Amino acid sequence: MKLSRKWLSEFVDLSVSDKEYSDRMTLTGSKVEGTEDLGAEIQNVVVGKILTIQRHENSDHLFVCSVDVGQTEPLTIVTGAQNVSAGDMVPVALHGSSLPGGIHIKQGKLRGVESNGMLCSLKELGLTVNDFPYAVEDGIFLLQEDCTVGQDIRTVLGLDDHVVEFEITNNRPDCLSVIGLARESAASFHLPLNLHTPEVKGAGGNISDLLDVEILDGDLCTRYTARMVKNVKIQPSPKWMRERLRNSGVRPINNIVDITNYVMLEYGQPMHAFDYSCVSGGKIIVRRAGENASFQTLDGTERNLKPDMLVIADETRPVGVAGVMGGANSEITDQTDMIVFESANFNGVSIRKTAIGLGMRTDASGRFEKGLDPMNTLPAVQRACELVELLGAGDVVDGIIDVIAADIPTYSLPLEPDKINRLLGTDLSADEMKTLLQELDFTFDGEIVHVPSFRSDVRHYSDLAEEVARMYGYNRIPTTLMRGETTLGGRSPAQQARRQIGDLCRGMGFSEIITYSFVSPSCFDKIRMRPDHPLRNAITILNPLGEDTSILRTRVLPSMMEVIARNISYRNASAKLYEFATVYKPQEDSQLANEQVRLSLGAYGDGMDFFSIKGNVEAILKSMRIENVSFLADTNMPSYHPGRCARISAGGMQLGLVGQIHPLIGQNYGISQPVYGAQLSFSALLEQAGPEPQYVPLPRFPSVTRDIAVVCDAGIPVAVLEECIARGSQGLLKDITLFDVYTGTPIPTGKKSVAFSLTLRADDKTLTDGEADADIQSILSLLKSELGAVLR
Amino acid sequence: MRKQLEEIQKSALETIRSANLAADLESLRVKYLGKKGALTAVLKQMGKLSAEERPVIGQLANAVREELTEAIARQSKLLEQAAMEAKLAAEVVDVTIPGTPVTVGHRHPMSLVLEEAEDIFIGMGFQIVEGPEVELADYNFTRLNTPEGHPARDWQDTFYLTEDGSVLLRTQTSPVQVHVMEQQKPPIRIVSPGRVYRKDEVDATHSPMFHQIEGLVVDKGITMADLKGTLEVFVQRLYGAGTKIRFRPHHFPFTEPSCEVDVQCFECQGAGCRVCKGEGWIELLGAGMVHPKVLEGCGIDTDLYSGFAFGIGVERMTMRRFSISDLRLIFENDMRFLSQF
Question: How far apart are CA B317 and CA A160, in angstroms?
Fold first, then answer.
């Protein structure tokens, strides 16, 4: 909402700077977004009258003008403009003047002729044709304003005004008006609010002889107030009105349209004016559109109306979409002789649905949808008629039609100072509260507060508390810390584990990423998910921003692949990344999602290989004290390299997958180098996490290390060998460390040599060589008998 | 014999002092002090001496032995020192050569800020709770005093998952308030960080997904003054003790009174600059006293209890903290960006 301070000053006598005004208004709840001194950049620009104009002797496109700027002698000014002629009134930037954009004008010579200033175009004054539709875009601004030679151009164009831009919250549609903001301003500065009661003289006749109004759907239209004007003379509005409209961001059109806009801005009540001659049968019916209604709005577009949309109709057809836009069939034209002013109160939700449904949100609909004051229709229509008389735009017909279709309730509630103080933490007396509320036009009967009709947001003592608080000053409310029962703050075990795993991942060189929860449905194909895979059943956003973000992810791999692809395209040589990412799975028995957290790892470059990423996963499992973890080859995961993928489980529970991402997936993401990844279920990790460790006494006797290398079938996994070794020991084996796997000469084809370092120790004595050898022999014989693995 | 001893002493001391190698020293020890050494040889002749001379010469011989032993030890130490110095001199490295690289991962800047904020609230007795992102409209809107027909519920602003509009991606972390109040009796002090979704196209300041930290306190006698105090502590812990904040009236359907909290612009200290768009203040968060209707809807007796709630935009806080000018960087996860934190 743009507020002209000149307009405001009609209601409140304020003498503060823009800064002071903004600060105070912001702190009482009307947030100021910015202020503008419209003429700040224009200096020393005056009205000039072209006395003579002739061609420049040394130029075929320049002209030399003699311009009267109210000084003793006319000025000689050279111009390149083609649209100037003698007698024109034009803006003249004098020697030493400034214009918007930091431009300074000085006298100078143009092709030998002294020029003492510049004739200005709209653009040079920082204006557009929207501000002054009669002016031309490329040429000097030929003034059609009421002005005198030598007058400051800022006064002539209404630029001697300051505009304050407010951000008005949805609950305060009353502040979308000059009067509403004036009321807030008066209360904020504790100054009187000078309201004006419109007075209409009337020119005889009687509206009830001409017009009848009927509200059929009272649930959507509470009140419909109308007055009529005859002998309408369509012409431009006076300068002051056009200035105020322009400074409020509204383009002046003609006197009648301008009056409706002026009243809307001043009172916050949208008005509509339409041609009486187009109202067939002299009757206005406010009703739902009904089936198959279509209708051309003022903007020339044919609209199909839904049955529930409210229309203003005559006996035969709609003449306007209520609260949104008038109809082309009843538009005011130069031939219009009689008009109807409509000032009505419509149901906000209905107006909003209609505006969205028709795809045209107008200034009027934007106000109606917030819920307007039904008591405002009458003063607004009166003000419009008063302005008609003031402007000489026509003769106002006597009488008012005012149909009220539904009860207009009034609201009162007790003032409960104790409750308010308890909520705010203040110690204000009832009288202090009363004074603050009275300044906002709340009235009192003893301890009963009557809420003004325009304050539909105040229904509860907490609402009154806010009014009191904001006028008293939020920043004057004391600052205290909570008292009462102590609460224990902290993180849940899951949150702690998440932090700890994050620390470990970063220690291992992985950086944290954060990716969108939504993905493209095409990502399933990209990660080679089987067509019948249940995880293709994703939750779909019905109104997504685009196809690419239209489903909620059920797997985390696509998000990771996108980030890796992006990093590769940025030529980042390597990356190790992790994310705690949520997946969202539909549930049969609930409308909500099964939201599960996955730990997603991804890496490429910098020597990363299967065993590095597996080592990282092992470190994470170890940090959670998860024991008896098994890694089983899974050759059947379409997302992974068939020979480099392990399914991780522990305690009979699947923990996740680790491996090299299938090169075909890489291709789908435009990646040619190997990418490694792991996805772990965070809930499974938590479930399998081991308890806090208990101290085990350190060994008192030394251990013996024996290295063995065995030759076995190449297909036997190391894990199977290790498991056999563990079982083969007679109890002295404490640790197995693999240190070599070798194929090639002299190992026969189809065989491999696997070397382990075995640590043996007894808890009660120092081992002799003989005792160690006996244990190793036992291990070797089991390896041989069970797996055919023989000592090399 | 005295003369012999004195000669041995003189020549031995000279040769010991000029020995350059540990091996030479050893052979000198053998030469003079060994079983077949010069000193021993002299002592063997002691028998020939008279009873008067014997103790005198014996004393002298011992003194010479001691002196030589000491001289050898001293010289040996000197040689060791010299050897160590030579070794160290040979081991000089160019300390300006960079260390062996260790790759350490980086925390996402948003996590940094989020965890710091969480820690501050934990210190004030808040628990961290989480809530679902796929949410019922009932929790996201209706029970937060935002009835059907309210503009905030428009399909152009909210991502809906069912045709009837009953299930959606939460637009705020505030529904967690309702979940917590349903499950927990006062006193309640929670913060709930998480993802929220609004139908905004991606640009430098907008994202269809972003993060908030919700806060909720419900207890006996909680006042707006407590809300101010709590948030003041939070902001000053986050941005430094001298940070100035102001409370400005605002509107949220589920709090009354409602406010927004501005922090004085770091760039211009309130004078007004480009960063704060001339206002001198930068909007930080929204807050208010929990609307009695919301409390009552969760079965909390408003005659006994009151509460406050607040919501903080994590992206905004992060961008301000690290002078990040474009929100898209946050979700791009470019290593060149991540590795700065």
Answer: 40
Cα separation values, A398 from A230, A285, A380, A534, Å: 10, 21, 16, 75
CB-CB neighbors (< 8 A) of B292 in chain A: 460, 462
- Alpha helices, DSSP H, located in B173-223: 175-183
Q: Specify the DSSP class assigned to residue A306.
A: P
Topology adopted by domain B111-338 = BirA Bifunctional Protein; domain 2 (3.30.930)
ipTM score of complex: 0.86
**Model pLDDT, residue B282:** 87
C-alpha distance from A582 to closest chain B C-alpha (Å): 10
Q: Using one digit for the tens of pLDDT, what is the confidence trace for A212-248?
A: 999 999 999 999 999 999 999 998 888 889 889 989 9
- pLDDT tens-digit map of A667-701: 999 999 999 999 999 999 999 999 999 999 899 99
Q: What is the pTM of this model?
A: 0.84
* Chain A positions in Cβ-Cβ contact with residue B147 (cut-off 8 Å): none
Measured CA to CA, the distance from residue A788 to residue A782 in angstroms comes to 9
Nearest CA in chain B to A493: B128
pLDDT digits (tens, 9 = 90+) for B138-171: 999 999 999 888 888 989 899 999 999 999 999 9
CB contact under 8 A, B187 and A484: yes
Any bridge partners for residue A104, and if so which? Answer: A98
B185 touches chain A (CB under 8 A): no
B224 closest CA partner among A255, A411, A142, A462:
A462
pLDDT at A445 over 90: yes
Q: What is the pLDDT of residues A353-369, one digit of tens each?
A: 999 988 888 999 999 99
Provide DSSP, A548-587.
Answer: GG-EE-S-SHHHHHHHHHHHHHTT-S-EEEEEEEEEEEE-
pLDDT at A279: 87
Q: Does B258 touch chain A (CB under 8 A)?
A: yes
In sign, the C-alpha dihedral spanning B4, B10, B13, B14 is: negative
B320 Rama sector, left if φ>0, alpha if ψ -120 to 50, beta otherwise:
alpha
CB contact (8 A) between residue B259 and residue A511:
no
Contact at 8 Å (CB) between A760 and A767?
Answer: yes
In 3D space, the residue among A432, A428, A434 whose CA is nearest the CA of residue A414 turns out to be: A434
Give the closest of A513, A543, A595 to B108, CB-based: A513
**What average pLDDT is seen over chain A?**
93
Rg, Å, chain A Cα set:
42
- For A525-565, the pLDDT digits (tens) are 999 999 999 999 999 999 999 999 999 999 999 999 999 99
DSSP line for A270-298? --EEEEGGGSGGGEEEEEE--TTEEEEBT
φ/ψ bin of A358: left (φ > 0), alpha (ψ from -120 to 50), beta (otherwise): alpha
Q: Is the peptide bond before B187 cis (omega within 30 degrees of 0)?
A: yes
Distance CA A369, CA A633 (A): 63
Q: Where does A105-166 have alpha helices with state H?
A: 153-156
Domains and CATH numbers, chain A: 2-38+162-188 (3.30.56.10), 43-156 (2.40.50.140), 207-404 (3.50.40.10), 411-475 (3.30.56.10), 493-688 (3.30.930.10), 704-791 (3.30.70.380)
Residue A130, pLDDT > 80, answer no
CA A181 – CA A175 distance, rounded (Å): 5
Amino acid sitting at position B116: E
Q: What percent of chain B has pLDDT over 90?
A: 63
Q: What's the CA gap between A462 and B251, in Å, rounded?
A: 13
Q: What is the mean pLDDT of residues A578-606?
A: 95
Give which of B185, B338, B339, B341 to mutate to test A binding, by max A Cβ within 10 Å: B338
| Sequence ranges of the domains in chain B | 2-90, 111-338
